Amino acid sequence: MTQDTCTDVVVVGAGPAGMTTASCLAESGVRALLLDEHTAPGGQVYRSVEKVTDKRPADLNVLGSHYRSGSKAVERLHSSGAQYWPGTSVWEISAAEEPALAVGVVRDGRARMIQAGHIVLATGAMERPTPFPGWTLPGVMTVGAAQTLLKSSGLVPEGRIAVAGSGPLLYLYISQLIKAGKKPQVILDTRPRASLQTKLSVLAALTVDPASMFRGLGWMREVRREIRVRERVHRLRASGVEKLSSISYESCDRQFTDEVDLLLVHDGVIPNTWLAMSAGCRHHWNVQQRCWVPDITGAGQTSRQSVSVVGDAAGIIGADASVLHGEAVACEVAACLEGKQPGVVGNAAHPLLAWQHRTLRRCLDQFYPPAQEFELPPDDETVVCRCEEVTAGEIRRVAALGCVGPNQGKAFTRCGMGPCMGRKCGVTVSRLIAEHHGLSMHEVGHYRIRPPVKPINVGQLADLETDADAHTD
Amino acid sequence: MYRRRDPISDSIMIWFCDRRIEAAADDSVAAALLAASISCFGRTAVSGAPRAPFCMIGNCFDCLVEIDGETNLQACLVTVREGMRIRPHPGNGFGDDGEKGEA
Amino acid sequence: MNHLDIAVIGGGLLGSAFAYGLSTDGGRVGLIDEGDHAIRTARGNFGLVWVQGKGLGMPDYARWSLRSAYAWTPFSEELQAQTGTLVEYHRPGGFYVSIDDTEFADNVARLKQLRDEAGDEGYDYEVVERAALCEQLPGIGPDVPGATYCPHDGHANPLKLLRALQEAFRLNGGTYTPSSRVTTIRPVNGGGFEILCEGGREFGCEKLVIAAGHGSAELGKSLGMEIPIFPVQGQVVVTERAQMTMTYPTNYVRQTDDGNYLLGPSARDVGFNDETETTTLRDITRRCTTAFPHLRQLRIQRTWAALRIMTPDGFPVYLQSEAYPEAFSFSCHSGVTLAAVHATDVSRWVLDGHIPSQYRCFHPERFDVPA
């Protein structure tokens, strides 16, 4: 590529979905540019897989065979001919009303615009927010964060560790930690008693995808054998001065206090929709997965003509399904660029697999429901907006004043106005408002997301050269 | 908070305020600081409360730091470099309170 | 059906100010508003409470702005006393900074013309050359030739203002009804109106104030009111919080009590498009960093685009329906500056049932003057 301000397709995010989409496109002769803010490909699920394979191969045993398999997608990317820019963050997608489609990026400290014919967002998933009193203290982190540290730097937590929440990632990480020679003190399982529906969905999943189910149940069994588990945990609270020193919680009608150095929390994952929302793509509330999901037609076409979404960003499907999805979306986008009507190619090739994935996903959603108290923090003092330190009580107050949506809530309390732009508070704020007014999440809606979606400084924007300034590298 | 499974094979030196820290050449700034038991990366704009990385994937912005004079960098996304000078994020005026930042 | 003495349609900066002002009189006042996802111009306001430079071609507007600036102090104090919400009003005076010689010369000429037109009733201002600026505006850029200073200028927090107005309104017994976009207004035989909303809510009222931003034109038509308004898009760049260094608001940049800087202004004619646009945002940052280079280091926390309610000459449009004198409509793009007089004077007009003749200058008939 000579002129690097222009390409056919920009793919954002180098996880399994993004890597596969970019590879597929490049293999079929489309100019594809893959952007990622990290310094190496793999996204989160295969974070640092190249480095670990190269420099710390012993860690592959700790991290597991599924992680190891991520190398395939990375190798495919490198041999596909797709251009790949690591260390590049995307701060905006030009508005639909503007004549040219462009992606605003920051790379090497410099802001620039990349023109494209089509954009594919493979922004993956992020952990569901878990507000509870004290969650902002240093020493409270997500399970995903701890796993990232293990993958990318071979770090293992020290001292007394508690892990709270639920979800496959929680058990996967603990089983990896045990293999790495460290055991948490206690697991705080926030799930309610399993309903009949849950048990039935487990049976269904076992028949449909026994391999994944046994793997997942295997992690759980191993872990629960070695570590004390508290069930049906409520009223979790973290305390400390300047950093975490203890936690308290209820479990089966008993009150507990534990001294801990690190609390890892996890309550499932949700699509990272920020870039798609900022691009004006319509989203709806997925009741089953309890998250915002883009409106999609075909394989990955959003409500905005030249923007597609792929992988977990389109709805949580997991790493393996993301690869299949990547191939389907790449076909669809390639057809789009040629002005063709995309065929039913991608999905039709794997209808059975797609059904398997859906059934497994439904089971996981049932088996690991989001914790009630994280969705709707009962304590008014709980900080909901971490950036602006707005509490649940404050949100409830403005809901009572008449705020019927998170944007009015934002205007009145500043929640969502900090650097994270509502990634850690958006769902909670909408929930609290919905609860107060007896509205559905769909009626309440989500934050209006505006650029910059990733940090950019005033000076970087001021120095931005656009096509209007006629510049070649 | 965290320790390394293996000793550092390709070590470099970085600074956090006045403290010299040994890091692995491919560490993220966040990983290097956490491995050195730094528990306060900066303070919040509203109340000056201490913060450290929460999500490690660039979504929580609690790991914002200043590196070699450039502000607003997410420590979890930046790779360390020899001689790098890291300071708590200064924009809110609370930056100086994070000087020590030790466990 | 909900029965009201006075219904105010529109929960933005104008409607909320009227609702608050009207609610001090003791009657049943209702504020009818849309939901979370409407145009909501108020969310994009810069926050200046500004006098200088206003009223070229209509000295009455300059006087009106000045009147409001001085009413702002008791207005904000009362709001705070009643609700506990600080609207962060400060009036240290303001600077209109110019970033090149042409702009400087044009601005100085404009102010001189305003003074000539206004005579004795003009407001104070002074021309400040660059050398003298450094003290009041630390960090002023080397390319700035100078500025003009007006002691009547100030700024406030528009979002806190909106919240405080609605809080005080409720405390006074007013009822706020959101998610109720008005679809039809029907005059009732014998006086009063019926208001029908999307979703089925209905209101009956004796008096009506239409302050629905861009929605006012359509609503006013049914009562014989021609309201010539159109959208002009403005974008704002907001930085992260920083140490307080700017105590004076300026036309380009102001620093809020929280420490964020607001950078503006801009104007685009793009219909009802409320999306930001890259080159516009960039040009805002270019102008503002020419004025204040130290802003370069700060992170952009968020950006905004909002649709000003603009009239053909930029001055307010205030009128009363001739066929139905109990119906009023008020539109302008200076919702913050004029909030004080809206809450006091204008609310009084509605309660008294007529707009005083000295404010006839704001009637839209001024646009019907044949060539």
Topology (SSEs and partners):
The complex is a heterotrimer of chains A (about 475), B (about 100) and C (about 375).
Chain A lengths: L5 E7 L3 H12 L4 E4 L13 H7 L3 H5 L1 H4 L1 H11 L2 E3 L2 E6 L8 E6 L2 E12 L3 E3 L12 E3 H11 L1 E3 L3 E6 L1 H12 L6 E4 L6 H13 L1 H17 L1 E3 L2 E7 L6 E6 L2 E6 L2 E6 L1 E3 L2 H5 L4 E4 L4 E4 L12 E3 L9 H19 L7 H5 L1 H17 L4 H4 L7 E3 L4 E2 H10 L4 H8 L12 H12 L3 H4 L13 H5 L11
Helix pairs in contact in A: 1-5, 1-11, 7-9, 8-9, 8-13, 15-17
Chain B lengths: L1 E3 L6 E6 L2 E6 L4 H7 L6 E2 L6 E2 L12 E4 L2 E5 L10 E4 L15
Parallel strand pairs in B: 2-8
Antiparallel strand pairs in B: 2-3, 4-5, 6-7, 6-8
Chain C lengths: L1 E8 L3 H11 L5 E4 L15 E2 L9 H25 L10 E5 L2 H18 L7 E4 H7 L9 E5 L3 E2 L2 H14 L3 E3 L4 E6 L5 E5 L4 E9 L5 H6 L8 E12 L11 E3 L4 E4 L14 H14 L8 E11 L6 E4 L6 E5 L7 H14 L19
Parallel strand pairs in C: 1-2, 1-11, 2-8, 11-17
Antiparallel strand pairs in C: 3-7, 4-6, 5-6, 9-10, 10-11, 12-14, 12-15, 13-14, 16-17
Major beta-sheet overview of chain B: 5 strands, mixed
**Unreliable stretches of chain A, pLDDT < 50, 5 or more residues?**
344-349
CATH topology of chain B: Ubiquitin-like (UB roll)
Which class of chain B in CATH terms?
Alpha Beta
| Rg calculated over all Cα atoms of chain B | 13 Å
Number of domains of chain B: 1
Q: Largest chain-chain contact? A: A-B, 52 and 46 residues
Radius of gyration of chain A, in angstroms, nearest whole number: 22 Å
